[in-house]
Every structure is written in C-alpha cells, then in structure tokens.
C-alpha cells in the first residue's frame, strides 16, 4: 500500500513540476497589459479593484459560504468522497484515485463555464466592479467543491488561509512562485496533522486581492465599455482556469500526503 501511495505521489509531483514550469514562463498575452488595448487606466483603479476583491472575500468568508452551499449539493459530494475513499483505502490504485479526481474535475468544468458566462453577460451590459463578488463566488465554489471531493473542509480560518494562499500563488510571477509554493506545502503539512501555525487571514486576503487585481485590471476596465465588454468573459475563463489548474494539483497532492500519515 505504501509503495502504491509513493508512486502516485511521485506522479502528482511530476505534474506539479510541469505546471510550475509552465506558470513560470512569460505569458505571450496578458489581459492586464494596458498597452495591448491602448486604454488609459485611471489613477487609483488598482487600489479600487483590490478593495473590491478584499470586500468580496470578507463577504463570502463571513456568511457567504452558507449561501454558496445552496448552489451545490454538499452532502452528496461528501457521500461520494466517502464511497471513493472506502475503495481507495482498500486498494490505493491509480484507478481508484482517479475516481476521486473525476469528481473534482466535474465541478471544475461546470464552474469554469459559469465564470465565462457571468463575465460575458456582465461585460456586455457594461458592468465592471459589481461582477467581482460573482467571480469570487464562482471561484470559491469551485475550490470548495474540489476540497470536498478530496475530503477537506473549508470553514475553518486555517483552511480559508490555505485557499487564499493557493489563489495568490497561482497568479504569482516566477520570482515568488517557488517561495509561495513551498509555504503552501508547509501549511498543508500542518493542516494534515492538525498542527497550529502562524497566519494572518486579513493580510492573506489582501495578498490574494492584490494578485487578482493585477491579473484582471484591464479586463475590469474593459467591462465598463459595452462595445468590448464581452472580452471579460474570455478573461474570467482564463483567470479561473489558471487558478483552478493549480488548486486541483495541490489538493490532490495534499490528499496523498494525508493518506501517508
């Protein structure tokens, strides 16, 4: 059993290494490039967007998680995990692990489409800032469903810190990505063993908000212009994918490390 787990962990770490290498390469096209669109970015817009993302996180981590839970079947996800977990515990094969992964992938596909649709509709209407809570809600709903698929919670402040750290790292540049990735692994180690560790949830919300604002600043500006607002849908999709691709691998890795305890 231990040898099977080790082989699967090595496989996931190889996938993680390939993704980190891809994330570290300069992007050929970035939505956050004002020069690409030749648009004047107003002074203070970055700070305004950071504040909007921060308030969105505060809202959802406050009471919003209960609202999000009305949009998916939490009990069914937990039941599905228990069934898959039973099979994997009896026989920790790649095939049984894939059953857990497929449940997570199902949630990812649905929510990624939702992110694109929401961005397109609001962009066409010429709406900018008001769609930020919707985007955060869709993003966190996807992460919550992935967490549940692997048997992890998201209610505790420590788990919320972990989620925010994942978001920050997924959008980080190559100069900070490796450092943040190591910090996430350290946090997962402590969470898996129910060990306490130092963290500041408010500061981490600010860090995640800065990363999102930097990634999406031009898209949010464009969404204020009805003619080209539909680009917001494409950008929402791209940003959602970039974050969730990283989140998926980190939860799968965390699950396998937990099983080794």
Model description:
- The protein has 261 residues and is mainly alpha-helical.
- Helices cover 77% and strands 0% of the residues.
- It is built from ten helices and no strands.
- It has helices spanning 2-24, 34-37, 45-68, 74-90, 94-124, 132-149, 157-170, 174-192, 201-222, 231-259.
- Helix 5 runs antiparallel to helix 6.
- The longest helix is centred in the middle third of the chain and has 31 residues, at 94-124.
- It is globular and about 60 Å long.
- It starts with a helix and ends with a helix.
- The relative contact order is 0.18.
- The model is unreliable at 28-35, 120-127 and 225-232 (pLDDT under 50).
Task: Supply database-style keywords.
single chain, 261 residues, mainly alpha
